[in-house]
Write a structure and sequence with these properties.
The chain has one domain (about 1-90). By secondary structure, the chain is an alpha+beta fold. It contains four helices and five strands.
Amino acid sequence: MKVSQAKLKLVARQVSAQLMQPGPLTLPPVVGLKEIVRMFGVKDNTPYQWRSKGILPKEDGEVSNNPVWKVTTIYQFAEDTKRTIVWDPWDVLVDDEAA
């Protein structure tokens, strides 16, 4: 699976528009370790191990002293490491041939 750049640009515009309005975001711009568990369908402790072993990319920031990554960072991590995403929060993945 690859990220569809066209879909990614559309979602980025949606997130940007939501940031300009009051209220909650429907599409999260960042994910934490628990969301990474869900994205890859792995055991609860796996992302913690990936992080401690330096497998996960450096976090893009922190929220309440917890590491967070831009969703795009995790998509790139999946492509770079050939890991399969089983939950696509932005619905931007397509078959390799369609990307």
